[in-house]
Design goal:
The protein is of the alpha+beta class. Helices cover 42% and strands 13% of the residues.
């Protein structure tokens, strides 16, 4: 096995209470890298088609990559993946945590957990010592208290991954958390962990990460860390991180407001980066090996959580601020803190609360029926409803299944304002005026999430509402770099995206770590391979495919913006269809979104053809 990878996978069967260490197939490592690539290859190979995501047979995967943990900017990442209980397709998320580096130092590239423990349990990993331990005393604790307890037992340098009460209750918008505010697995991966009666993993390692050229890694790392700090926007980034996006998004009519009805919000300044920096910020936090920390630690000044601190960024502030009509930063922070403590995805929580509020406004359900005085801007009511979601209480039980399910339950016109793609709630960019970003959401491999392509930045810079093949080529390139390379290598994309760290650093680091001469053409092919395999997985699990699965929310086509400089704007369906056609063509997929047989063969994915032929026509 080449350096950069440990060459080992730890498999843990909770039902049998046994673990085994297996070799990582070198071919899989070279052709899929790790992280997302290793996760989708594992799910394709090992998950019986049609498996219930909350059954013991669904593998829960914690995967690093060849760049994880090495001395380079922002390498403290891992990917957490499984078949999603929220969408029924492929689900994953990355998370920055000590657990990433500790996993590599323990001697493993990935942990694959199957089965279900007889009782509430946790896993403790210390190099080669693997223990499945009782966790009755941890069950029911919020993520902050569980983190404190596990740090007291195992030390502050241990890597800790934990779910909250939402994951325990199998809430399908629950996540896996670490270090009080870091979270991964938006498509309900916290519920997968809870379904296995697994509260936490604690990982400690003492080994050196195997590297082909350790001196070169250190040399490159010193230069790259210096390069990051030299960037023009570095100082401003340190002050505000992603929070400056609140003002930027409002200026460009992209700030989600009142359940994505509008792209501008009257109270944006009260919840924006400038207000956060001036009034609420007390410190900052980054992932391991990061010298451009993005976590703004803020203090709640008023309300029931007064004096408590929470880590905020643009996504959770927009989704629990403007999207709910809340302009009081104290209540935005309160909702974010509650989501983190319960192990709820703050993006999906904000979306479900907004959906419920609009459902009340439209008369599809009454305040009396849900038992909460839901209305725009009412922070206390939003918190009360969030508590019902985490505990599956009353109407909260419906919302705990996500907005797609809730819309189906309510019926009538509810689907018109259920803001999701493939069942995953849309993250915080309104796309009435941004057809490229809408396509990025529509074709994201996990559902509506921005991590694969923050394409709106190109549209603001180069002109919006341009439907051209060149634009789609740029989108596919961005997906392949962000969602293919960074999610599989595994490293954080922010040094490149936010500060402009040159992409040519990364093949150099791969060479020093693994000894392999990857070019960007090689990495692009790997990304294409991963995207086509993820699409094949979706098709297999859904029993087919249609173009409608790659469409953004209906609202952006039907209801034009009514406020701001872009009032009257909405997406054009004919233009979107053209762009989707080009997208499929560039990916080598049929016009119905199904990969062509020749594409699968060219990418080395011949092994998927027999299973796909059972559900679709590949000719």
């Amino acid at each position: 096995m080449k350096s950069g990878w440990t060459g080992k996978i730890l498999r843990i069967d909770l039902s049998r209470r046994k673990s085994v260490v297996q070799d990582l197939d070198p071919k899989v490592a070279v052709e899929f890298l790790g992280g997302r690539g290793l996760a989708i290859k594992t799910l394709w190979d090992e998950l019986p088609p049609g498996t219930d995501p909350l059954s013991p047979d669904n593998p829960l995967i914690f995967a690093t990559g060849p760049l994880t943990g090495i001395t380079m900017p922002s390498s403290g990442k891992m990917v957490i993946a499984a078949k999603s209980p929220l969408t029924g397709g492929y689900g994953d998320g990355n998370i920055g945590t000590k657990a990433s580096i500790q996993l590599k130092k323990a001697g493993y590239d990935a942990i694959i957990v199957t089965g279900k423990a007889d009782d509430h349990s946790m896993i403790a990993i210390n190099d080669g010592n693997i223990e499945i331990e009782p966790a009755k005393d941890l069950w029911g604790l919020d993520t902050y208290k569980a983190q404190d307890e596990l740090e007291a037992r195992y030390g502050k340098n241990s890597g800790i991954l934990v779910i909250g009460p939402a994951g325990e209750n199998l809430v399908k918008i629950s996540v896996v958390t670490s270090e009080k505010g870091r979270a991964g697995g938006r498509p309900g991966i916290g519920a997968v962990m809870g379904s296995k009666n697994l509260k936490a993993l604690v990982i400690t390692g003492s080994k050196e990460i195997p590297l082909d050229n350790p001196r070169e890694v250190i040399r490159l790392g010193a230069e790259a860390f210096k390069d990051v700090k030299s960037k023009e926007s570095y100082d401003f980034w340190i002050r505000q991180g992603t929070m400056a996006t609140v003002e930027w998004a409002n200026e460009n009519s992209a700030l989600p407001t009142h359940n994505f009805n509008e792209g501008v919000f009257d109270g944006f300044e009260k919840i924006g980066g400038n207000s956060m920096e001036r009034i609420y910020k007390v410190s900052q936090k980054g992932c391991p090996n990061c010298n451009m920390p993005c976590g703004n630690i803020t203090e709640i000044r008023e309300g029931p959580y007064q004096g408590r601190r929470t880590e905020v960024d643009y996504e959770n502030v927009a989704m629990n601020g403007s999207n709910l009509g809340i302009d009081d930063m104290n209540w935005v922070m309160t909702l974010n803190l509650y989501a983190d403590e319960m192990g709820l995805d703050s993006i999906s929580m904000g979306s479900t609360l907004a959906f419920a509020t609009e459902a009340v406004e439209r008369g599809l359900i009454s305040k009396e029926e849900i038992g909460v005085n839901l209305e725009w801007g009412n922070g206390p009511a939003m918190l009360e409803m969030a508590k019902k979601i985490a505990s599956r209480d009353g109407f909260g039980n419906v919302l705990s299944e996500g907005v797609a399910y809730a819309a189906t339950r309510l019926g009538r016109e509810a689907n018109k304002f259920a803001i999701h793609v493939k069942g995953l709630e849309t993250s915080a960019y309104d796309c009435h005026a941004y057809i490229g970003m809408a396509l990025a959401y529509g074709t994201s491999p996990i559902g509506a999430h921005h991590k694969d392509a923050w394409f709106i930045s190109i549209e603001v810079r180069e002109g919006r509402s341009i439907a051209s093949k060149e634009r789609v080529e740029k989108l596919v390139w961005m997906q392949n770099v962000r969602g293919g390379f960074f999610e599989s290598a595994v490293a954080c994309r922010l040094p490149w995206i936010e500060l402009g760290l040159d992409l040519e650093w990364y093949p150099k680091f791969l060479k020093a770590a693994t000894g392999l001469d990857y070019t960007w053409d090689d990495l692009y092919t790997i990304s294409n391979r991963i995207y086509s395999l993820i699409r094949a997985f979706w098709i297999r699990e859904k029993g087919g495919w249609s173009r409608s699965m790659d469409y953004p929310p209906i609202r952006w086509f039907k209801d034009p913006l009514t406020k701001g400089p872009l009032a009257g704007t909405r997406l054009d369906r004919e233009s979107y269809d053209k762009m989707l056609d080009w997208y499929y063509e560039i990916r080598g997929w049929h016009g119905n979104g199904i990969p062509k047989k020749g594409t699968l063969k060219n990418l080395g994915l011949e092994f998927v053809i027999p299973q796909l032929r059972k559900v679709v026509n590949l000719e």
